[in-house]
Specification:
heterotrimer, A alpha+beta, B alpha/beta, C alpha+beta, B: alpha/beta, 10 strands, 33% helix, globular, C: ten-stranded mixed sheet, two-stranded antiparallel sheet, 14 helices, elongated, binds adenosine-5'-triphosphate
């Protein structure tokens, strides 16, 4: 179809002022969306990659996070006897009873936060085999030493190799830095579980985690509400220890992401919807003005023999092109944010969550889709108006 | 009556520069317009007729020479002074009517009256009177696009005379009109001149229009090449 | 200065779609600004309105750690302490663990709570008495009552996790607070009751989250805080004692740079809106070149003609801004993300100032062009 594209392209450059303003408005809108999505993605990614499917966590049924779960030493003893626990090459059962709490520490940028501290046991590292010590070394069991996640480094006071973090009234040495592949563990401090349980003046652990033997069916974990009936392994354990829930480590972290993730995506949707209106209005105004300003030119096109459909498509293409250019510019604006580390409190757990902005393919796709939508919606009406012009009218208008 | 003319152009040069090209449109032009005169300016296209009108109306400045209005040198005033001087002394009528499309006839006529110290009610009365003079009392609340070309031009005339200016400057006021409407506009201008002693300077290509004037000035290449009483 | 007002209005009406779209763009922008700002002001106000004459002691170890209840007696003995009360975070699950039902529930000691916090709350003497006398009763904030559709006489059941056992209490009072530092989305019940419950279920007992001290002389806050903390520095119950203001500030700071992040985004939103309004004004100016010529010919000064362009931009933006701030103002006092949205007049003035700024900035270039435009150019250029 002979759309007068060249004509439409020229006119974009002809109306420089309006083209520029509209381009920037679309670009900034797309940039804001991309940046917000990048935060959400970074955060979600850190959570969804955190756990393995075959690592199962046992928590109190009413606990919505590890910090709220209470398992006594007896409970742990019972659990460690489960036949569903996988064993390593040396024949040792792969389970760990862990303490989880928030340690009040200062951010290097000022202000305090609660950094998650995990009291781990001998098999904790083996169960999370994706975690590696990248600097320094492991803490020695029974000593006042910790290793810290790489996302804490330099963001929290004392969190660097050779640094000191205050646990109760004692100074604990940072002897190693671990890399858990940008997951939630990268925001945690790990130390000896037995020792930490004493320091925290506790008689209990928070969670029990084990590598499930192949074919293990955890049974039906009551969804959210603790009043529903459990089955399978969940029922087996609940009958002995009181109501528990069993979920894969992966599911657990994805659930934890929900709260902050939900907040962020709500903010993203809210801001994007409100802002898109501005970008749309800009496009709309520009093209409506273009149509009335070019009334005579459109008349000439129609007189030459172009059909209204051509005029419609020409204007629509012009709007979409402008919006897409804006979208690309917006992505360019958002790109430098990729990889920037930030942190905030996840109010679901009351602990610090560090994560990186992640401008990945899905973010870019969403940004382009937004630009495309803005272009299409903002272009359709003016294009329709252009197509509806009658040659007679166009020539009469002064 | 004073001994000097209402408008005097003395040794006026007007040079347009486009790039490094200079276009001498007016070259030492001398021209007098007496109070109460109805003068027609004629000449081939591009000879500088509109330029002269613009100088008389203080919307353009000469490169050399003087434009004196009632003995006062217009080129010595700054932009703001010239603006308020125009508001008090000149009424413009253009070929293309140049009405505000977003305002009704009476609102268009009220526009220059807003610049006068008249009270509100008086302005309104003045505007209605002006429209009555041009015969458009019925069409007061119409928008320009609801009027014919001749009617639009009459609104433009009403706007020009509403402030009771000392001179009417009309640039091809009948240029866009059919013969009948043109005649009506010329009747109107002639009547204003005869009954109120309104000074009028009118640019025209139409010899029939020029016949209505007291005096016709023929121009060519920025010079007066002839003049005669009509 | 003579400004053809009627013409300004007529233009705005004539291009009603453009004017409306521009107004709505400004409305959306100022709305975004207003909500972000009232969130940030809300965080700040919760700190600013917190008392600096009350001290709060918590475990220095962690928000998750507790202090033994027995410290209460020791602290009460300290010179300068008028009264001590304690709060204990119960946690637990109400209905389900979704964020909708995630509000604060504390075990407290009613008589001392009334002494220390009574002045911050609107609650009848009679209600206080009923609350005190009924061990399985609770009071809840007005916002909580609204959000969870709870009313006097309803029973609230919460399944414990930090403390085992299910609490089952009756609502005997609904409080409102006089200060923004005390939110209206919290439930208070008897500490004795929940402690008892936990004890009998084999859970933890005789521990509290925080102690709050009312001081005889606010001037002594610093000294007293220090003496409490040094007192317990080498025990296993290391305390961190701060004024209530600083205690609140610690929660505010837990947001990290999220507020800053949102402020930056808010700034980008405003710039994007400037593009839209500036575009509108440029389009207007482009269409009105000839009119400007006529106005100047008629004797309107360059100043008044330029002012026209400025005024039109200002008008559009202020209408959008004023509507937005009216909406934002109606959010005052609502809870969003654990924060009481706060909209003081200052925020409204800021919103209007930004709207005015948008109007002036976007009218500026057209006004300048209009100012410079000579009559000859204007008349010559047929739009
Ligand atoms: N702003 C300008 N810049 C450059 N040249 C100009 C400008 N204004 C007028 N001219 C030139 O000056 C000459 C005289 O113009 P003017 O408009 O006075 O002619 P005119 O006699 O009114 O012609 P017409 O009868 O066609 O209206 C023309 O050659 C025109 O091209
Ligand atoms: Mg001419």
């Amino acid at each position: 179809m002979p759309v007068p594209l060249r004509y439409n392209l020229r006119s974009l450059f002809y109306r420089k002022g309006a083209t520029f303003f509209t381009l920037i408005a679309v670009a900034l809108t797309v940039a804001v969306l991309a940046i917000l999505l990048a935060v959400g993605r970074g955060f979600e990614q850190s959570m969804s990659l955190s756990g393995r499917d075959d690592n199962l966590m046992v928590l109190r049924a009413s606990a919505s996070s590890e910090g709220e779960s209470v398992l006594s030493r007896e409970d742990v003893n019972t659990l460690s006897g489960l036949s569903q626990i996988a064993r390593n090459a040396a024949g040792e059962a792969l389970f760990a009873a862990e303490l989880y709490a928030g340690l009040a520490l200062e951010r290097t940028t000022g202000g305090s936060t609660n950094v998650p501290i995990r009291g781990v046991s001998a098999r904790s590292f083996e169960i999370r085999d994706q975690i590696k010590i990248v600097e320094g070394q492991m803490f020695r069991p029974g000593s006042r030493e910790v290793v810290i996640g790489k996302n804490l480094k330099d963001r929290i006071q004392g969190c660097r190799l050779g640094g000191v973090v205050k646990v109760s009234n004692e100074n604990w040495q940072v002897v190693g830095i671990l890399d858990a592949g940008d997951t939630a563990f990268d925001t945690e401090i790990w130390g000896d579980g037995e020792l930490l349980v004493q320091i925290f003046d506790r008689t209990f652990y928070n969670s029990f985690i084990f590598r499930a033997a192949p074919g293990t069916d955890p049974g039906l974990t009551p969804e959210k509400s603790p009043t529903k009936v459990a089955t399978g392994l969940v029922k087996y354990i609940s009958d002995r220890l009181g109501a528990v829930k069993i979920l894969s480590e992966k599911t657990y972290f994805v659930d934890q992401a929900g709260f902050l993730g939900g907040t962020l995506s709500a903010a993203a949707i809210f801001l994007t919807v409100l802002m898109s209106f501005g970008a749309l209005a800009g496009l709309f105004n520009t093209f409506l003005a273009a149509v009335s300003g070019r009334t005579r030119e459109i008349g000439a096109l129609l007189a030459i023999g172009y059909r209204p459909m051509h005029v419609f498509l020409g204007f629509l293409a012009e709007a979409v092109l402008l919006a897409l250019l804006g979208g690309l510019l917006g992505i360019l604006i958002a790109l430098p944010f990729n990889g920037i580390k930030t942190g905030t409190t996840n109010w679901g757990t009351f602990t610090e969550q560090a994560f990186s902005f992640r401008v990945d393919q899905s973010v870019i796709t969403s940004a382009i889709i937004l630009a495309l939508l803005v272009g299409l919606i903002g272009g359709v009406f003016p294009a329709l108006r252009a197509a509806r012009l009658k040659p007679v009218d166009t020539l009469r208008r002064g | 009556m004073s001994d000097h003319p209402l408008i005097r152009l003395a040794g006026v040069d007007r040079i347009y520069t486009r790039g490094n090209e200079e276009l001498h449109v007016l070259n030492g032009l001398d021209l007098d317009i007496q109070k109460g005169e109805f003068v027609a300016l004629m000449g081939p296209s591009g000879c500088g007729k509109s330029t002269i009108l613009n100088l008389m109306g203080a919307i353009d400045r000469p490169n050399a020479g003087q434009v004196l209005f009632d003995g006062e040198d217009l080129s010595e005033m700054n932009e703001a002074e010239r603006a308020s001087w125009r508001a008090r002394n000149v009424g413009f009528i253009f070929q293309a009517y140049n009405l505000m499309p977003v305002l009704t006839a009476v609102q268009n006529v009220l526009l220059p009256l807003q610049l006068t110290p008249l009270p509100r009610a008086k302005r309104r009365a003045q505007a209605e009177l002006a429209l009555q003079i041009v015969g458009l009392s019925e069409r007061m609340n119409h928008y320009p696009n609801q009027l014919s070309g001749g009617q639009e031009q009459r609104v433009a005339i009403a706007r020009a005379i509403a402030t009771d200016p000392r001179v009417l400057l009309a640039d091809e006021p009948t240029g866009d009109l059919d013969a009948k409407s043109a005649a009506a506009i010329l009747d109107l201008l002639q009547e204003l001149n005869r009954q109120n002693g309104q000074t009028i300077v009118m640019v025209t290509h139409d010899p029939k229009a020029a016949e209505r004037a007291h005096r016709v000035i023929q121009l060519d290449k920025g010079r007066v090449v002839g003049g005669h009483a009509a | 200065m003579n400004i053809p007002w009627r013409l300004v209005l007529a233009h705005t009406k004539r291009r009603w779609l453009r004017s409306t779209l521009t107004i709505v763009s400004v409305f959306m922008t100022i709305l975004i600004f207003g909500i972000l700002r009232s969130f940030i002001v809300g965080i700040e106000t919760s700190v600013a309105e917190a008392s600096s004459t009350r001290l709060v002691s918590a475990s220095a170890l962690s928000l998750f750690a507790h202090l033994p209840k027995r410290l209460e007696g020791e602290i009460a003995q300290l010179p300068g302490v008028e009264a001590v009360t304690h709060w204990t975070w119960f946690g637990g699950v109400y209905i389900d663990s979704s964020p909708d039902h995630l509000w604060g529930r504390f075990g407290v000691d009613v008589p001392s709570m009334r002494k220390v916090y009574g002045p911050d709350l609107i609650l009848d003497d009679e209600v206080w008495k009923r609350f005190e006398e009924n061990r399985t009763s609770c009071i809840i904030g007005a916002d909580l009552a609204k959000d969870e559709k709870l009313k006097l006489g309803d029973r609230v059941k919460i399944v414990g996790n930090l403390f085992p056992g299910t609490v089952d209490v009756e609502i005997v009072g609904i409080y409102q607070s006089k200060v923004r530092s005390f939110d209206q989305k919290t439930m208070f019940m008897h500490w004795d009751y929940m402690n008892e419950l936990s004890k009998s279920a084999g859970g933890r007992q005789d521990i509290v989250s925080t102690f709050t001290m009312l001081l005889k002389d606010p001037g002594q806050a610093g000294g007293l805080a220090k003496s409490i903390d040094t007192n317990y520095a080498s025990s296993s119950n290391r305390t961190l004692t701060q004024t209530e203001k600083m205690f609140q500030a610690q929660f505010a700071s837990m947001w990290g740079n999220l507020p800053l992040f949102f402020s930056i985004l808010g700034g980008i939103v405003i710039v994007a809106c400037l593009m839209v309004t500036a575009n509108t004004m440029m389009l207007n100016a482009r269409e009105r070149v000839q009119e400007v010529g006529i106005l100047k010919t008629l004797g309107f000064t360059p100043g008044s003609v330029s002012t026209m362009a400025l005024v039109e931009g200002l008008l559009l933006c202020l209408v959008g801004g004023a509507l937005a701030m009216a909406v934002v103002r109606s959010f005052d006092g609502k809870m969003m993300m654990f924060t009481i949205l706060t909209v003081p007049w200052r925020t409204i003035a800021e919103g209007l100032a930004i709207a005015a700024g948008l109007g002036l900035l976007s009218g500026f270039i057209p006004a300048l062009l209009t100012h410079k435009l000579t009559i000859l150019d204007a008349i010559r250029r047929r739009a």
